[in-house]
Write a structure and sequence with these properties.
binds S-adenosylmethionine; 200 residues; 6 helices; DUF938; SAM-dependent_MTases_sf; 9 strands; seven-stranded mixed beta sheet; alpha/beta; Rossmann fold
């Protein structure tokens, strides 16, 4: 067992409600591509509870190895080794064939050009009718859904001007540009949402 594994309390809190949705979205066997895997807590939780899936973690090259201790300790056979994937780089064609994609808490961290690259890349590798599930906080009509999200947004922008909670309208426009149609928008605990995009 690895001591001092990277740990996110947010992942511990949100993994069960996210799993509940993913279980209904990813019913067929196949490989799910995760963008911005982070600690790997999500990857391990979902791969363990959805054994018909193969989980493919990826992350920015700076963070791509972060998830290895969680994956190693899980002993699960249905998680592939992580791939270093900066969404801006053209490495999307080296990925295994996938049936779906998932990403959590990445859109407000990435530069907008990276969010666009994530949608373009996923739009390119998803099969027709495939689902991309994007979890996180979002704004609607230019308004935050809670005071805590507003505070979080302010703290993100204070850290770096490129970060910030994204507007659903901008994401929808991006989806249209990249062949991804917003099909569902689930309310989740702690003022988060789980957006379901389907490849048209
Ligand atoms: C707030 S963390 C979320 C991690 C994890 N998904 C979670 O929910 O805890 C944001 C993640 O986005 C990744 N990321 C940021 N820019 C990226 C890029 N250009 N390409 C791929 N991943 C990126 C970071 O490396 C980090 O793992």
């Amino acid at each position: 067992m690895h001591k001092d594994k990277p740990f996110s309390q947010a992942c511990e809190n949100n993994k069960a409600p996210i799993l509940e949705k993913l279980a209904t979205l990813f019913k067929q066997p196949g490989t799910i591509l995760e963008i911005g895997t982070g600690t790997g807590q999500h990857a391990v939780h979902f791969a363990d509870r959805l054994p018909h899936l193969v989980w493919q973690p990826t992350d920015h090259p700076q963070n791509a190895q972060l998830c290895r201790p969680w994956i190693a300790d899980s002993g699960l056979a249905n998680i592939n080794p992580p791939i270093a994937l900066n969404v801006l780089d053209g490495v999307w064609f080296d990925l295994p064939a996938i049936i779906g994609a998932f990403s959590a808490n990445t859109a407000h961290i990435m530069v907008w050009e990276e969010v666009r690259a994530m949608f373009l890349g996923i739009g390119g590798v998803l099969p027709s009718n495939g689902v991309f599930s994007l979890y996180g906080p979002f704004r609607y009509g230019g308004r935050h859904t809670s005071e805590s999200n507003e505070r979080f947004d302010r703290s993100l922008r204070a850290q770096a001007s490129h970060m910030g909670i994204r507007d659903i309208e901008d994401l929808k426009a991006l989806g249209e540009e990249t062949g991804l149609v917003l099909e569902e928008d689930f309310e989740m605990p702690a003022n988060n949402r789980l957006l379901v995009w389907r490849k048209s």
